[in-house]
Task: structure prediction
Amino acid sequence: MNQDDYQFKIANREALIGIGIVIFNFIWWYGFAYGLGSKDPAEYTYVLGLPAWFFYSCVLGFVIMVLLIWLVVKMFFTEIPLDELDDKEI
Result:
């Protein structure tokens, strides 16, 4: 198995995209949870009956991440065979 195979290049690129999405998700969650949630609870604002920090970090963040992952998979991920290729197929 050659590490320079196109399968490894694609897998490495997709892994880096996945790491980028995880970092984006953490920044989104942390920013809203600790940015808006660090106030005195008497000063909280509410969205749909939930504290704004919780709504933006957990509810809206989940919806955005699902849409982002769907979009990234459709646009940037490639379906590759995971079987070893014969010499004729390379």
The longest strand covers residues 46-47.
